[in-house]
Amino acid sequence: MIRLILSVLTAALLTSAARAEEQKRPNVVFILADDLGWADLTPYGSTYHDTPNLKRLADRSVRFTNYYAASPLCSPTRSSILTGLYPARTGITAPACHLPAVQLEKRLVAGAPKSRVIGADSLTRLKGEYVTLAEVFRKAGYATAHFGKWHLGHGAGYEPKDQGFDADVPHTPKAAGPGGGYFAPWKFVTDPQFKGKPGEHIDEWMAGEAAKFVAAQKGKPFYLNFWMYSVHSPWNGDPKQIEQFKKTADPKAAQRNPLYAAMLKNMDNAVGKLLDALDAAKVADDTIVVFTSDNGGWAYPPKATDPKGYEHIPATSNAPLRSGKASNYEGGTRVPCLVAWPGKAKAGTSDALFSSVDWFATLLAMTDVKPKAMPKVDSVDQVPAILGQKPVRDAVYVHFPHGSEAQEVGIPGFWPATWVRKGDWKLIRFYARNDDGTDRLELYNLKDDVGETKNLTAEKPAVVKELAGPIDAFLKDTEAVVPKANPGFGKQPPAGSAAGWTPSKDAAVEVRDGVLVITSTRGDPYIVTRDLPAGAGPYTVAFKMKSGSRGTGQVFWATADDKGFHRDRSTTFEPKHDGEWHEYAVKLPVEKALTALRLDPSTAPGEVRLDAIRLKDKDGKAIRSWPAAPAKKE
Is pLDDT at 17 greater than 70 in this prediction? Predict the structure, then answer.
């Protein structure tokens, strides 16, 4: 009996000790802004924008000046925060996670004749095989909640509750941004349980809901992702705030857009409400607060705005940094970062290098959470830097395999590239950017030239060589999809082509009266199209056809692994050659991305008309349509 009593007491004491240890662990609030620029906040030097709540946070935080998002666009950075892995490793390299197609393969896209470079086809979901911060915290006894924008995938297995979060508010996994506007009623929030008062700002409403979550924990540690929709497009501001900022705008200043300033004000209000919630629950002194942005600010005209009148004023300026969101220059990835760690880190400024991939290891170290099996990560523990002891990172890498000539016109640096910053030096490798298809290298000394105005590659060949090696090693280690020169760049379509289709020697093709007309002169007429967009199969080729020929029809396909067309990679169909319009849907049992299609409408001479040709992916979405001209009704 005595042994039993002792056993029970021991178990109770161990349980009590475990609970006490659990309660002593600090809470974590991770605030992520969307598209916020390096110089947008009062603590980072803005004299136009009004962000008192972020100044309030900065006054008790370590303010990092050399902090980098892992990508100049949002989804890749978001994945890096949650997994501690570079986007090059996960394959999420573009904000494509709202797309319906589930694309989980690292690969290049097919090259279009107008593109000098072939870039990557980003994955469209964060794979469940990766361990997330939320999963680790939940196993350690933390309550976990995600508030706001997700943009890492939707559907079974890919949403916040599938990736370690107990709660997901307001549950918008398909949303790339606050489509339809920030003020209630919200068009992009489709879950009926989440409704704000008419005119209520989504981020301020979320702060109220987050306050309820914080209050409900009652001593249990929590990990709260507060990922705001601000200040992503649409450009939608409070008219009263806009009028206030119009009064203080200097037409000669770099930051002078009243609409954007009003949007920042709502964002700052939301942060203030969240900080107030921590104070009200009496957990502010036990809570680590991180504030940062997923990529650089939109330093270009915002185009459509609500209200009108501000579409030609750059939304913001990241000066002295060059360019902004979507760029491989500093303005694309260098962003604000505030870290408040009560009782541990002293408020001040740090110039230590810091990457968004580092949060995984850093937050676990700050909370003393030790998973039984730590996954392999690219993350570096930044606690020494936060405590002001010593820098931890000696280099930062970004791999962004997207962009083109057309996109770079409005956004300097929006071109497929990999870059490394080591110390004061930054080397950018722009793939196939030279006129001869070779890579362009740009080297900058950021200490002397933070605006990246002087390319020093010719003057510093030894530095170029020293940094080129780490880039190669990084690409190999992460198994990155590396862009390459497009061999078809600048090549004109073959003579006789029409609407992107090239005829066989037994046929001619033209667009007539808005439809594709094939005139066959012998027994093997067909048309071929290439440079197809990436998609996931099985596919369907749907079209309308009116035939005056005869014989069986056939659709061939080819992927990057195939050399030409073959009957084993084809599907037949039986056309009605009665001179009337009929609809067809030919299924192609292939899952890989297609590079070419061949359509054989018949096996005899005659005229065949095709209209509304659609290549559909496995979800039924048309990823390519022909012809471009509207069809004439007959």
Answer: no
